[in-house]
């Protein structure tokens, strides 16, 4: 890690007080005090399930987000929900963003699994219906008790029992919910003669009730994994419970804070103890398989024996019902029950994306036998009896391998049910850097190596310290062993939690997320572009499966560049490997969803947001708030930048789902400008080799890639109703840039951390790069200028947009110097389109369409937009190949989408 000077530490400490106020907001922040004088109101909004149809089960309940046009509804508006048939549905609502006039911009809504379900709903301003059950939350110094009306869940405020008990009808279904972690001191691939191993338990540090009903309660638990004096692997848990439901959703986040050379995680899981009741033959185990399959087992089976207990007995056991009185059986079985083995331990392990294996054994000290196997398990298990039991599962189970569902001790009084997010049966988690540095000891050597592998290496910068991973789990406290059909329904809800969603038309009419419009194939020219947008999106979605871009640390990301000689993405070539949000892939995927409303597009973008917001960003340590540039390892490249941790990429999933963890990530970034106190992003460019001792009044924060990312965090904090200084810093910084001699292209500017302003010398000078606006700057400026009345800021930004792809003579006339040979001109066609609209200039609109079609550094009209099949033996297995790269797809997608929205009527 980088040494931090005394001055930097002191400056950071002085700024920390202000930063704390800026980031210590709560999810229930009050609406702005400004109230619009006249509200237009809003008609009911139709909401449908994302995947269509009517889901058979929910994962306890669900939450989703809805946008509202500016000036339509008051900031504290209540809402009612009803099915398409008019049946009232109890709903809980909370605001997540407001317009500058105080009117409502975004709301989040929650419904329970127990609520009436239909294919669609109508959300209407008004009073919500009351349900038969409402959440009750009781707090005292030692515990928090949540009663859904069906189950009661007790959370401990200290100790290692995160969930002390889950009760139903006065009976304990599960207890001692806890976090477990194992480590060893060497990698499995480099094991020495002796290997040190340890086990850790999650210890509660803080419990917060974030929501308390009436439909949904959210309990946040923070802590660390401990053994003896050592505390590591900090965690944040959020449990969501729903009125009238027996389901509990858990969003589990842990942070890496160990030594990658000596801390190798060998198991990471969540475990509950389940009291076992009844005879061994009335104890049941269930595992879900692909395509609705269910493996149904009993701890002591009475089927398939040499002697038949009777059809009624066999049928009852297979179906999970209590067996008839043994006195009614064939007594040749009854008298010999003790000779039938009791299978107390069961495991479903998904160690890769393409296969799982189920095994069982009678108990510790005895061998495992294979029960069955398959391809991709949806990740749900059950242990219990006809009098109740626990279903336990994990979302994206096979995608986030190596995972496991384990049951132990089912033949005793108490079984343990564990969801392993990292299976102990897998190799130890190895987070070490993938090469030894290859003697890249100086900046010149590192820059020379960059010329061949595109990897920006620097010793000590490939650390995973501070990265995180979030996993979603679901538990059901069931009154009885579920039927196979019901268990399959729960497995589907666990694997793909049903989500209500508004239409592209409503989202667009609400005026959120800047320049985009729903799919429109009304002309041949529009249809051609729409076909191309579909083609590049479909290609990248399909590549995930064809190339098996799965795994605990990888799932959600895509690769950067393609190696046509090997018919392989460049997974092993430095900076050409994992994409890590380079050139705004996240933005492209979210805008594609907004336009199409396609479920697969949503799930693709959601998985990327969950990955890039956690794995590709530091959440602890001195680099907190910085993301890592693309590379072979997600955290491996030495370029640590806010353009990757970018709040502009996180906003979509937060507003569309109400996910609190995504809200955490956005709030984390509000003071990310402070990262320039600890790291000089331009150190290799300016040759800085000494101690970094920055001047807080003159930091080297760029006005484009850096400021655009920080501005997105400020904008989001402002509209979420957070600290008002976020708005002040956003506007102060934008005004200061506009006041520079050449605004966004002025050379030699520096940033004052205290005032959030940029300054430079009085003379015009030009400094502009092709990457300046392709990390969300165009998008955040579009939104900002729609929110505020800042004529000077708008004028200078429109000037930048007009000039980027203009002639050198025009650039020189406006800024005193031409802008050199700029790249990515297709990407900037959307900037030209924006200027065309703001200046009402048809010639600029025509120029923008020509820039998009020419495809400089992107996809020209004349290219081959199709894919071709590559068959073995040229490749390991059949794959599709095309002339696409992730960066070019993202920028073509964003440019085409915004040009269609801005100047679509000018397309001939």
TrEMBL record:
<feature type="domain" description="PcRGLX/YetA-like C-terminal alpha/alpha toroid">
    <location>
        <begin position="498"/>
        <end position="907"/>
    </location>
</feature>
<dbReference type="InterPro" id="IPR045793">
    <property type="entry name" value="PcRGLX/YetA-like"/>
</dbReference>
<dbReference type="InterPro" id="IPR048331">
    <property type="entry name" value="PcRGLX/YetA_3rd"/>
</dbReference>
<dbReference type="Pfam" id="PF21346">
    <property type="entry name" value="PcRGLX_3rd"/>
</dbReference>
<protein>
    <recommendedName>
        <fullName>Tat (Twin-arginine translocation) pathway signal sequence</fullName>
    </recommendedName>
</protein>
<feature type="domain" description="PcRGLX/YetA-like N-terminal RIFT barrel">
    <location>
        <begin position="44"/>
        <end position="125"/>
    </location>
</feature>
<dbReference type="InterPro" id="IPR048329">
    <property type="entry name" value="PcRGLX_1st"/>
</dbReference>
<feature type="signal peptide">
    <location>
        <begin position="1"/>
        <end position="29"/>
    </location>
</feature>
<dbReference type="InterPro" id="IPR006311">
    <property type="entry name" value="TAT_signal"/>
</dbReference>
<dbReference type="Pfam" id="PF19501">
    <property type="entry name" value="PcRGLX_1st"/>
</dbReference>
<dbReference type="InterPro" id="IPR048330">
    <property type="entry name" value="PcRGLX/YetA_2nd"/>
</dbReference>
<feature type="domain" description="PcRGLX/YetA-like central beta-sandwich">
    <location>
        <begin position="135"/>
        <end position="491"/>
    </location>
</feature>
<keyword id="KW-0732">Signal</keyword>
<dbReference type="Pfam" id="PF21345">
    <property type="entry name" value="PcRGLX_2nd"/>
</dbReference>
């Amino acid at each position: 890690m980088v040494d931090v000077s005394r001055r930097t530490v002191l400056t950071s400490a002085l700024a920390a007080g202000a930063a704390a106020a800026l980031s210590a907001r709560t999810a229930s922040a009050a609406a702005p005090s400004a109230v619009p004088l006249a509200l237009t109101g809003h008609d009911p909004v139709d909401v449908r399930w994302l995947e269509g149809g009517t889901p058979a089960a929910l994962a306890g309940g669900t939450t989703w987000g809805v946008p509202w046009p500016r000036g339509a509804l008051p900031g504290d508006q209540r809402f009612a929900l009803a099915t398409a048939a008019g049946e009232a549905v109890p709903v809980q609502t909370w605001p997540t963003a407001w317009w500058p006039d105080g009117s409502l911009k975004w709301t989040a809504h929650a419904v329970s699994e127990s609520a009436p379900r239909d294919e669609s709903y109508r959300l209407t301003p008004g009073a919500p219906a009351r349900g038969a059950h409402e959440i009750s939350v009781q707090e005292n110094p030692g515990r928090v008790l949540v009663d859904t009306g069906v189950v009661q869940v007790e959370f401990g405020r200290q100790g290692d029992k995160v969930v002390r008990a889950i009760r139903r009808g006065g009976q304990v279904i599960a207890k001692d919910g806890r976090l477990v972690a194992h480590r060893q001191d060497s990698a499995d691939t480099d094991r020495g003669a002796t290997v040190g191993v340890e086990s850790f338990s999650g210890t509660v540090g803080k419990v917060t009730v974030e929501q308390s009903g009436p439909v949904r309660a959210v309990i946040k638990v923070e802590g660390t994994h401990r053994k003896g004096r050592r505390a590591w692997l900090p965690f944040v848990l959020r449990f969501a419970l729903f009125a009238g439901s027996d389901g509990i959703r858990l969003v589990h986040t842990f942070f890496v804070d160990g030594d990658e050379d000596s801390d190798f995680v060998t198991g990471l899981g969540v475990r509950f103890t389940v009291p076992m009741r009844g005879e061994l033959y009335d104890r049941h185990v269930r595992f879900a398989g692909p395509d609705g399959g269910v493996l149904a087992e009993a701890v002591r089976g009475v089927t398939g024996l040499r002697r038949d207990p009777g059809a009624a007995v066999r049928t009852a056991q297979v179906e999970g019902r209590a067996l008839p009185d043994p006195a009614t059986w064939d007594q040749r079985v009854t008298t010999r029950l003790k000779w039938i083995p009791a299978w107390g331990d069961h495991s479903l392990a998904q160690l890769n994306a393409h296969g799982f294996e189920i095994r069982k054994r009678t108990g510790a000290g005895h061998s495992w036998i294979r029960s069955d196997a398959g391809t991709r398990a949806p990740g749900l298990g059950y242990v219990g009896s006809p009098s109740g039991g626990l279903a336990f599962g994990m979302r994206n189970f096979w995608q986030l391998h190596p995972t496991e569902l384990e049951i132990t001790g089912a033949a005793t009084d108490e079984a343990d049910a564990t969801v392993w997010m990292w299976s102990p049966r897998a190799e130890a988690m190895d987070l070490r850097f993938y090469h030894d540095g290859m003697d890249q000891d100086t900046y010149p050597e590192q820059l020379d190596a960059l010329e061949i592998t595109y990897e920006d290496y620097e010793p000590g910068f490939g650390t995973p310290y501070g990265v995180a991973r979030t996993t979603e789990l679901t538990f059901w406290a069931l009154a009885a062993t579920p039927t196979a059909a019901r268990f399959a329904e729960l497995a589907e809800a666990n694997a793909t939690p049903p989500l209500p969603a508004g239409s592209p038309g409503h989202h667009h009419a609400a005026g959120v997320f800047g320049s985009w419009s729903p799919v429109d194939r009304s002309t041949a020219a529009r249809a051609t572009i729409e076909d191309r947008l579909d083609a590049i999106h479909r290609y990248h979605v399909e590549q995930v499966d064809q190339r098996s871009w799965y795994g605990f640390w990888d799932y959600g990301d895509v690769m950067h560049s393609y190696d046509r000689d090997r018919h392989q993405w460049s997974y092993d070539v430095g900076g050409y490997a994992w994409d890590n949000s380079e050139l705004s892939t996240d933005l492209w995927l979210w805008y594609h969803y907004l336009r199409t409303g396609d479920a697969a597009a949503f799930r693709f973008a959601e998985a990327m947001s969950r990955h890039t917001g956690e794995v590709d960003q530091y959440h602890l340590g001195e680099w907190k708030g910085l993301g890592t540039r693309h590379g072979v390892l997600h955290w491996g490249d030495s370029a640590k930048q806010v353009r990757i941790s970018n709040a502009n990429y996180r906003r979509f999933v937060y507003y569309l789902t109400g996910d609190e963890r995504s809200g955490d990530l956005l709030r984390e970034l509000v003071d990310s400008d402070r990262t320039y106190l600890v790291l000089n992003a331009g150190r290799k460019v300016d040759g800085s080799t000494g101690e970094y001792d920055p001047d807080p009044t003159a930091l080297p924060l760029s006005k484009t890639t850096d400021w655009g990312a920080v501005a997105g965090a400020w904008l989001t904090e402002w509209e979420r109703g957070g600290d008002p200084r976020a708005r002040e810093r956003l506007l102060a910084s934008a005004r200061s840039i506009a006041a520079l001699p050449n605004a966004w292209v002025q050379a030699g500017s520096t940033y004052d951390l205290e005032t959030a302003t940029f300054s430079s010398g009085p003379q015009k000078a030009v400094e502009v790069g092709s990457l300046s606006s392709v990390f969300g700057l165009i998008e955040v400026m579009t939104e900002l200028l729609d929110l505020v009345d800042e004529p000077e800021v708008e004028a200078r930004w429109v000037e930048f947009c007009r000039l980027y792809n203009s002639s050198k003579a025009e650039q020189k006339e406006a800024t005193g110097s031409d802008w050199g040979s700029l790249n990515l001109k297709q990407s900037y066609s959307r900037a030209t389109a924006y200027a065309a609209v703001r200046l009402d200039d048809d010639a600029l609109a025509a120029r923008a369409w020509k820039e998009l079609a020419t495809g400089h550094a992107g996809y020209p009209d004349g290219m081959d937009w199709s894919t071709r099949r590559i068959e073995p033996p040229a490749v390991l297995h059949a794959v599709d190949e095309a002339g696409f790269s992730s960066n070019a797809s993202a920028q073509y997608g964003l440019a085409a989408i915004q040009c269609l929205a801005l100047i679509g009527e000018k397309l001939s």
